[in-house]
Amino acid sequence: PKFQRGYVWNRTQASRLIESLIINCPIPVIYLSQNSDETLSVIDGNQRVNSIELFLNGEYELRGLSAYPELEGLRFSELDPRFQRHILNRTLRCICILKDTHPQIKFDVFERLNTGSVKLSAHELRHGLYMGTLMNKIETLSRNAVFKKLTMTENDKRMKADELILRFFAFYDGWQAYNKPLADFLNKYSERNRNMDENSLSAIESKFLNTLNTVNAVLGNKSFRTFDQQHKSPKFNAALFDAQMIAFAELDIQEPQIEQLKQIGFSELNYDFISIDPFAKYISSGTTDKNSVVGRITSYKNFISSKL
């Protein structure tokens, strides 16, 4: 699957793996996920599988060896046939999580396997497990310039932007039915809509972009952000993102209403509203509790409606 990190091993790391194959050194188990079409996705072992494939295809020469330093600088085709046989005859032990496994159990299994030097984030893991049309669309939308600016994800390296868009999709689909944990809620939505049809994708994309542009028109650089008492030190707040995006999306604010909100100084009124309880508590503590999710979305919808 297209994990964000991709292939990151350097040639010395890859070469040491090949040397381990030659000397019959044990190779860690590779974990696979069976997809709905019965193809297999590598969840743990991506670097090993890619290193072997690249070497067999002559993509790099060996370097940094300790047991067989005389093989330095050689590619697979240049090895003595007995070394080639050592490599080709090795068995790679694999454990496969079957397609019928419950989505949350599958996610939990792979989360516990996620012990690399640079651990995958929850959404990087989710992106791999539920790869399909939905994740492709989210990946495309995450590159939207307005979205990246408003969510402060211009330098996003760990798919934080993608997860925010997934949150919007999942909550818009049914925030009233939300139950914690949030990860489980997002996983179930991802599994259920993994290969969403083109018409549904187009509809949710349009709703997302229209809502984003509306929020930007009304709140500008105050969108999704909390501030200190001097209106300074802006910080992005994911819980506030949920509330503002879902509220504006469900109210389906149109151009005349946008102008009306701008004329009454809605962005300043917004600052006052999000800074006092109970709303301030909904976006600052226990933000994944059902009470907080339902409370902040309901409250913000009522706040907007009271100004129209």
Properties at a glance:
two-stranded antiparallel ribbon; 308 residues; mainly alpha; three-stranded mixed sheet
Question: Could you describe the 3D structure shown?
Answer:
There is one protein chain. This protein is mainly alpha-helical and about 300 residues long. It contains 15 helices and five strands. A three-stranded mixed beta sheet has the order 2-1-3, sandwiched between helices. α8 crosses α11 and α10 runs parallel beside α12. About 30% of the residues are buried. The mean pLDDT is about 90.
Termini Cα gap: 46 Å
Judged by helices, strands and strand pairing, the structural class is: mainly alpha
User: What gyration radius follows from the Cα positions, in whole Å?
Assistant: 25 Å
> Low-confidence runs (pLDDT<50, min 5 residues)?
none
How many beta-strand segments?
Answer: 5
Biggest pleated sheet: 3 strands, mixed
Strand adjacency order, main sheet: 2-1-3
Mean pLDDT: 90
Shape: elongated
Total number of helices: 15
Q: What share of the residues does DSSP label as strand, in percent?
A: 5-15%
